[in-house]
Design goal:
By secondary structure, this protein is α/β, with parallel strands linked by helices. It is built from 14 helices and nine strands. The protein has a six-stranded parallel beta sheet with strand order 3-2-1-4-5-6, sandwiched between helices.
């Protein structure tokens, strides 16, 4: 299939690579041309000078950029992907953005006889590099059935969760849950270290019970060693939580734990840890 991929950050770069490796003809666009050139050198695809040019003659266009404004910039207007897409083509937005934007783009695409799906992902940079992301989608069933085999190039699981915007709402739930789990792990590890427990032996034991989680399995060692220069950045997490808080003002959800953890992440930013992994919540206790 002819596929365009817009946005070659830490997630998009390997995701587009998996598509090319799977045998699709991938054309990429990135605001920083050098990044697109590097991608082409590594994977052998092609690059375009604008999102519209990348999308031309493609049945499927993937977008993975930073936020709502970034999505609008690469999707709308004369140089946006919708301007380059032909009738019947599908736009899949992997950006973590607002549900309102997803609904807006769905309506615009539909009015142009094109298709749109919101499809935020979970799994972080490692998940993207290893092709094992989880993808949460919103849109039409028939369109999902069309794109699911392509998405499987870089995902171990994907699911259609409802109409347009449902994927973004699911990602909000994902981030709300992660915030509470990481803070709980940070508090537990701080308690354990202050109590003189062997953290490795502790985690080996409690991870097999009800306290176990992905965060515990994959982050306890780096947290105990005060290592945070990797992973999903605090800055990004606060952006994502902010989207959830905006949505909660509409649906009435309180989110007291997530709001408190967001304040803790603000403290991490003030410590200079905006680009640290989200597991750096432990640093609030250990670096005081």
């Amino acid at each position: 299939m002819n596929v365009a991929f817009i946005g070659l950050g830490v997630m998009g770069f390997p995701m587009a690579g998996h598509l090319q490796k799977a045998g699709h003809d991938v054309c990429v666009y990135n605001r920083t041309t050098k990044k697109a050139e590097s991608w082409c050198e590594e994977f052998g695809g092609t690059m375009a000078a604008s999102p519209a040019a990348a999308a031309k003659n493609c049945e499927l266009v993937m977008v993975c950029v930073g936020n709502d404004d970034d999505v609008r910039q690469v999707v709308l207007g004369d140089d946006g992907v919708l301007a380059g897409m032909h009738n019947g083509a599908v736009l899949v937005d992997h950006t973590t953005a607002s549900a309102n934007l997803a609904r807006e783009l769905f309506d615009i695409a539909t009015s142009q006889d094109k298709h749109f799906m919101d499809a935020p992902v979970s799994g972080g940079q490692a998940g993207a590099e290893n092709g094992v992301l989880t993808v949460m989608l919103g849109g039409d069933v028939a369109v999902y059935e069309q794109v699911e085999p392509i998405i499987s190039s870089y995902a171990r699981f994907s699911k259609l969760l409802g109409r347009a915007g449902s994927g973004q709402l699911a990602k909000m739930v994902n981030q709300i849950c992660i915030a509470g789990v990481v803070e709980g792990l940070a508090e537990g590890l701080d308690f354990a270290m202050r109590s003189g427990l062997d953290c490795e032996a502790l985690i080996e034991t409690i991870s097999k019970g009800a306290a176990g989680s992905w965060q515990m399995e994959n982050r306890h060692a780096t947290m105990a060693n005060d290592q945070y220069e990797f992973g999903f950045a605090v800055d990004w997490m606060r952006k994502d939580l902010g989207i959830a808080f905006t949505e909660s003002e509409k649906n009435g959800a309180e989110l007291p734990v997530a709001r408190q953890v967001d304040k803790f992440y603000q403290e991490i930013q003030e410590m200079g840890g905006g680009r640290w992994d989200t597991s750096s919540l432990l640093a609030r206790y250990t670096r005081r």
